[in-house]
Amino acid sequence: MAKSKSTIFFCSSCGFESAKWMGQCPGCREWNTFVEEVVPPKSSGRASSAPISRSDLPVPVAVPDVKADDSVRFETGFGELDRVLGGGIVRGSLILVGGDPGIGKSTLLLQVARYVSSKGEPVLYVSGEESMQQIKLRADRIGDFSENMKLLCDTDLDVISQVVTTSKPGCVIIDSVQTMVDSQLSSAPGSVTQIRSATSTFMKLAKSMGVTIFLVGHVTKEGVVAGPRILEHMVDTVLYFEGDRHAAYRIIRGVKNRFGSTDEIGVFEMESEGLREVENPSAFLIGGRCTDASGSCVTCTIEGTRPLLLEVQSLSSTSRFGNPRRAATGTDSGRVNLLIAVLEKRAGINLSDSDVYVNIAGGMKVQEPAMDLCVALCIASGFLDFVIDPGTICFGEIGLSGEIRSVSLALARLKEAARLGFTRALVPAGNAASIEKIEGLEIVAVGDINEALRAVR
Ligand code: TYD
Ligand code: MG
Q: What is the pTM of this model?
């Protein structure tokens, strides 16, 4: 007897499919991620063997004959967001904006919608989470909206597709993809099959009508867009909106981009009238630092193509227990342990009975090895209680023998430091050789950790 419905198990982390439940996903090795979902029987579409009539056949087009459209990209109204997108929104693309609840995704997209609609582009804002009145309240804080900006509160995929097809907007915002429902599927909204179906519906809509669609996606505790990773594979661009909910600033980061480079970031600040872009993020991030405390130093990291100054802080205290605590906020704690080992072995600083805390001020998250030197100097400064001159900046990767290794884009980092008024820079010897003079900045080449410690003490 043929089954009318069957159930399939999906990994809620990576989307792996299986006929039976499994404890560990063979796809992504996560435990306990399998959820059961009902899948409808495949619709009996065109039999694969039936020939297609000649007029249905698509004709391949030669590359030089493809018409390039001048109006392929349009602006969002935020220079920071345009840069992350690779120079503006590409017409007909599907963009996923992920982020924690309350971080400001709806606010950002409402502001983008306001700008785009004010330029004469019809925009449809579909909300499955808030009522018209709630959106209106938020919109009133942001400013006046043009007639081109339309709202729709619905969650039914068919209804939304119909509305988009008939009203032909240039840009559609779906807030959020987890609330969208395909009525043909029996699984609950937010489940793997529903999210997949919604994403593929919007993908088809975007490509067939040339309409740009923004999808808002919530992020789970683990920091991935709720629902399977495959969501990320299906869309053109993935942006993550991150930052400390309690701090005022927000960072938008490109994780995938079919039309530009990734790893670009844009910095915003949440104000009472919505988000405002931060034009000088370095000054913003190192603003308010304490210049006469030990255990603090500034480094320059590269985010995408842009240098960013950051303050690293460290504190050590006598450990009460046999097993000292090492904690790192905003950076890799394994890397911090490695640097502590280098300081002990190569510089003779005995941290074995001290707790060590390292923090990247301002809630930024950085993994770049180029900040090793800064972290190591901060730990030494915090432990030995000496103040590093606040006009000093340093960067460099530290190797296991205590050597300071060269990093990429040293010149860009130094220029950013000089621009913000720093007067002295500790630079890996390998980089210093290729750098000519920079106005106002004394460049100190350091070959190993001991040289660096001598230069700051
Ligand atoms: P929201 O866009 O609703 O977040 P998300 O859609 O990502 O869940 O924004 C949430 C926060 O932003 C909320 O806590 C209030 C704050 N906010 C401001 O501070 N100023 C403003 O002008 C607006 C509209 C929101
Ligand atoms: Mg929202």
A: 0.78
